[in-house]
Amino acid sequence: MPLGLAALDELNAAFEELRGALDGVDAAEIEAATQRIAKAASAVRAIGVWRSDEAVKDRLKALQPLMESARIRTNLLADHANQRLAILAAQGAETAPLVYGR
């Protein structure tokens, strides 16, 4: 297997890991998956063969829906968290009791 295809396989596995992490609630797992994607993407960029090799270009095109779904899921989760924070901020301390007494 050419080096470029092996690097793309690692990138694919990293995005699959991120997909699983986004379904969970563990922030450390999401962070680890994100770092794995960054390493794999750097490896693909460093090889540079993706610009000329048709097999690598085809593999990248096949990977695009997975990358797009990860982007969309990340944006949805961020939006959901922002909405929950806005609701809590709007309710204020009157409806949400303070955790610590004074």
TrEMBL record:
<protein>
    <recommendedName>
        <fullName>Flagellar protein FlgN</fullName>
    </recommendedName>
</protein>
